[in-house]
């Protein structure tokens, strides 16, 4: 299971599954998604509200009007006087955000019916019956004005008394109007005005407004279908919204609204338009308009009671003349308070005002159907980018990329809103990318922890804790599949191991081996090396893998210098044990071979068992050098390539040798000390004398070489005695039996 979880393809497949799910729900109407989307659009509207217009006025049936004119509903004679006064003040259109569905209870004839049947009231009944009917007075005022638009609203089906009056039937310039009819909001029931009012009016419109899931009105249906379904004797018809009907009457009471297919629409245009004169209103098949709100200051409202004060009429004329006038209410008791993106509590009449103003200004908010596809495309492209990069990118970098993509979406969405009025939702795509990033980060963490554990299991016993921590911190530095890289390879071996082992029991031998290999291993790991393997009394280690080490040759040499020092306490224990047992101690001494060169390194072995190891000529030569340490009487032999990388360390060239298995001779060096020792005057004197002897020897001047070796031995101060003895013997032999003229100073090693 864990192997499946840490697989990069599993990582990609999980993210792809999430992306497919995000795309599947990208066009959904889930409530949470809608709320987040609406909150974004509301914020845009608050940051960039629509500018004000001077074409519309509001007559407010406010608390002051109720106090002065009496309890609502006012007598229809009061409403008639209001209409007449507005007409006289130059109102272009008078639109009622009110329905007059029942007869006026204060009409004289209705009051007469409430009087007792007694004879004493007969004259009063006769006098009242002779007075004009209030509803008739109101209807005549509406007809005389010629510019009144009445309104109707929703009701329960059982409360519907009459079909809405249709002043001007809309014209459909469509091949098939069925989709538009079916998708438009359908009202199950209608509360319509008394027929005498509607028929006398220049127009009749719906002031229904359906809020979204959070109670805020953002869209209005420019048409209402009634009845909502086809029934016996009734074919559904479309009736305009109050504001749209007011605009039609403003332009021309005899004009019609045209519903057209948007044939020349661009990529971000709506499928339909509602046309009236030169105005084109963008809608989809549901006939809804996104309301582009502005702040309407309370000072813009005109209290209705002022229309009945002759002293204020001339001042009111300036605010009413030539305008579309809506009559609504801000009184809390009349319950026409709505919520908009800009304010939680506003009179419902403001919705109609905003609709008319934005049509007159040509400033629309649009969310055409194609936008859902655009949002899905954004999710798809950005999501694929994250998925493709996630397995190979640092979490922080991926987080910055994700935040950048999200920021770009919000910025692009804002610019489209501000410049084009396009409502592009940046929230859902951003949430989708956030989920992809979080899941990707979680999978990356699981995979990273698994890789660290794998690294710890594979290398925990072979490299130092510090080196291990660095490798675990960034497993990407580790390449286990196999590669060729420059390594510095070290072989160590116990001198005279056979002799030592013969004098010990198996338990003692194992204990001794552990005592030897533990400090050797510690020094390798402390100097950033990797232990390859243990081979009986021998150990192989290398540097510059699995992690890069620019100073791999130096670290290997410094580790070698400390190894024989580390054997001192071990030999003390060996000596103490031998004395206690009454035998002569056989002290441990290590031979070390070091070489640098290209090697193949990686996991090697079978499917059942493998190990991280290195192969190559450089490895073989390091092994050969270790085996030659005994012949040259030194503890450390270093190859020429290693010497080139650490020229500042104290080294002496020993010979030009052709080891077994190689045709090309190599220069070999002994490591005498670190860079501090290389700067000591005594070593420099020794090095000069040593190089002089070696130069004479290779030049075939064996007489001079014999003299120079004496000087070199003296400068060495007792060091390299076995080596100088070896070369003294060679010089004596060559003096007796000179080598052939083709002799190049190369010594051929016959043993591995």
UniProtKB/TrEMBL annotation:
The chain crosses the membrane at residues 370-388, 395-414, 426-446. Keywords: Cell membrane, Membrane, Transmembrane, Transmembrane helix. InterPro entries: A/G_cyclase, Adenylyl/Guanylyl_Cyclase_3/4, CHASE2, Nucleotide_cyclase. The keyword Ligase does not apply. It comes from the Bacteria. Gene3D superfamilies: Nucleotide cyclase (3.30.70.1230). GO terms for molecular function: adenylate cyclase activity. GO terms for biological process: cAMP biosynthetic process; intracellular signal transduction. Residues 488-626 form the Guanylate cyclase domain. GO terms for cellular component: cell envelope. It is found in: Cell envelope. SMART domains: CHASE2, CYCc. Belongs to the adenylyl cyclase class-3 family. This is Adenylate/guanylate cyclase domain-containing protein. It comes from Micavibrio aeruginosavorus.
């Amino acid at each position: 299971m864990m192997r499946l979880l840490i697989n990069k393809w599993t990582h990609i497949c999980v993210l792809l599954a999430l992306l497919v799910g995000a795309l599947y729900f990208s066009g959904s109407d889930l409530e949470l998604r809608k709320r987040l989307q609406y909150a974004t659009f509301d914020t845009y509207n608050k940051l960039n509200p629509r500018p004000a217009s001077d074409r519309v006025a509001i007559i407010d049936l406010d608390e002051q009007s109720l106090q002065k004119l009496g309890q609502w509903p006012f007598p229809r004679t009061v409403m008639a006087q209001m209409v007449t006064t507005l007409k006289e003040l130059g109102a272009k259109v008078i639109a009622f955000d009110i329905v007059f569905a029942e007869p006026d209870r204060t009409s004289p004839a209705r009051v007469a019916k409430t009087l007792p049947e007694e004879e004493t009231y007969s004259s009063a009944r006769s006098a009242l019956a002779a007075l004009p009917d209030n509803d008739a007075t109101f209807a005549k005022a509406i007809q005389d004005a010629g510019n009144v638009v009445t309104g109707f609203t929703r009701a329960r089906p059982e409360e519907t008394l009459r079909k809405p009056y249709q002043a001007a039937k809309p014209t459909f310039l469509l091949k098939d109007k069925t989709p538009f009819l079916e998708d438009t909001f359908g009202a199950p029931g209608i509360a319509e005005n008394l027929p005498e009012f509607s028929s006398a009016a220049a127009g009749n419109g719906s002031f229904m407004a359906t809020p979204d899931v959070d109670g805020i009105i953002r869209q209005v249906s420019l048409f209402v279908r009634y009845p909502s379904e086809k029934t016996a004797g009734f074919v559904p018809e479309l009736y305009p919204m109050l504001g749209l009907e007011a605009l039609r009457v403003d332009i021309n009471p005899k004009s019609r609204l045209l519903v057209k297919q948007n044939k020349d629409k661009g990529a971000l245009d709506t499928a339909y338009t509602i046309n009236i004169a030169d105005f084109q209103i963008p809608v989809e098949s549901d006939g809804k308009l996104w309301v582009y709100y502005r702040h309407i200051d309370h000072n813009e409202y005109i209290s209705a009671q002022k229309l009945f004060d002759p002293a204020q009429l001339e001042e009111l004329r300036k605010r009413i003349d030539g305008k579309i006038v809506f009559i609504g209410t801000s009184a809390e008791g009349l319950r026409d308070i709505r919520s908009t993106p800009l304010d939680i509590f506003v009179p419902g009449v403001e919705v109609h005002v905003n609709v008319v103003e934005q049509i007159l200004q040509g400033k629309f908010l649009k969310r055409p159907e194609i936008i859902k596809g655009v949002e899905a495309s954004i999710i798809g492209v950005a999501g694929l980018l994250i998925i493709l990069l996630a397995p190979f990118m640092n979490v922080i970098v991926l987080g910055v990329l994700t935040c950048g993509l999200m920021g770009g979406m919000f910025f692009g969405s804002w610019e489209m809103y501000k410049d084009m009025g396009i409502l592009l939702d940046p929230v859902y795509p951003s949430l989708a990318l956030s989920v992809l990033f979080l899941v990707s980060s979680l999978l990356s963490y699981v995979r990273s922890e698994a890789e660290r554990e794998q690294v710890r299991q594979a290398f925990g016993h072979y490299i130092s804790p510090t080196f291990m921590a660095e490798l675990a911190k960034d497993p990407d530095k580790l390449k286990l599949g196999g590669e060729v890289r420059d390594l510095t390879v070290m072989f160590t071996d116990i001198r005279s191991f056979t002799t030592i082992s013969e004098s010990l029991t198996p338990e003692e031998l194992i204990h001794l081996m552990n005592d030897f290999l533990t400090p050797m291993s510690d020094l390798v790991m402390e100097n950033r090396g990797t232990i390859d393997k243990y081979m009986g009394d021998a150990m192989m280690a290398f540097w510059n893998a699995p992690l890069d080490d620019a100073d791999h040759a130096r670290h290997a040499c410094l580790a070698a210098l400390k190894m024989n020092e580390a054997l001192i306490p071990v030999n003390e224990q060996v000596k103490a044990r031998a004395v206690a047992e009454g035998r002569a101690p056989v002290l441990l001494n290590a031979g070390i071979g070091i070489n640098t060169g290209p090697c193949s390194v990686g996991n090697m072995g079978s499917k059942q068992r493998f190990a991280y190891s290195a192969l190559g000529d450089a490895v073989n030569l390091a092994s050969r050098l270790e085996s030659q340490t005994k012949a040259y009487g030194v503890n450390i032999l270093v190859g020429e390539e290693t010497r080139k990388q650490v020229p500042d360390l104290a080294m002496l060239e020993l010979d030009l040798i052709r080891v077994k298995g190689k045709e090309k001779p190599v220069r070999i060096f002994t490591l005498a000390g670190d860079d501090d020792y290389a700067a000591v005057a005594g070593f420099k004197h020794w090095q000069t004398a040593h190089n002089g002897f070696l130069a004479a020897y290779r030049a075939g001047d064996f007489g001079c070489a014999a003299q120079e070796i004496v000087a070199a031995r003296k400068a060495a101060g007792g060091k390299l005695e076995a080596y100088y003895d070896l070369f003294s013997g060679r010089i004596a032999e060559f003096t007796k039996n000179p080598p052939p003229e083709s002799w190049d100073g190369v010594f051929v090693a016959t043993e591995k």
